[in-house]
Amino acid sequence: MELKLDIEKFDEIQQVFIREITETIHTKLVEAGLEGLTLENTTAHIAFSMASIIDDTSNIEIDGIHAKPYLTFKDDDDNLIHCGENSYTYEYVTDNLKRMYES
Asked: What does pTM read for this prediction?
């Protein structure tokens, strides 16, 4: 495996990634019986929290051990696609929520 810098491909894949996470959160909350504004708000809160963890914008530390995620995606040739910095999945959460709830 090689680390491959491809900002455009990374951006495309991270959009799919956070969309799937957001839709899965929504589905599980529906299965749990949430609906309406409670469903929308809870989906948004969880999706933004997950994006914050993935993007390393939250301080993850337990017992002095820090976790600093750096998101990569594997392509068909087993390369690890990255963008050269932390991911920015949070930038796509709002668009996903609008697409899900304003249609």
From this structure: 0.91
